[in-house]
Amino acid sequence: MTASTPNAWLPQPLRKLAGRALESALNHTLSLDPDTQHKLVALDGRRMQLHLRGPELALAVTVEQGQLHVGPPVEDSQLRVAASPGSLLGMLLRRGDDGVAPGKVEIAGDADLARRLEKLASTFAPDFEEAFARTFGDV
Length: 139
Known about the structure:
alpha+beta; globular; single chain; Nonspecific Lipid-transfer Protein, Chain A; 5 strands; 5 helices
């Protein structure tokens, strides 16, 4: 395996641990916006492959019963996204028409799934105040 092969630099036990940690963090964050979590149920069984360039990490994210499951990359994903972590974050956090510069994010596969995920991401509104109140109590 070469250095440019996704996940080659990360030992197998750490891949599993990191995948479980990411899955837990994503699902906890989703729980802060019940509306988005409810809409996610409509994507049940859909799979997306994500390739982060730079750290050369690849993973698959599958929707199952309104939850996200993170696993190793697979060839039969309906949607494939390749980007640097910064470009991906910029795309997810953008508001309005200020899109990402061409070439920074590559998207291939099911265009309908890509549009639905983009819409979910743009309307995602987690209630951080509620999360703080659950943890620290009312202030």
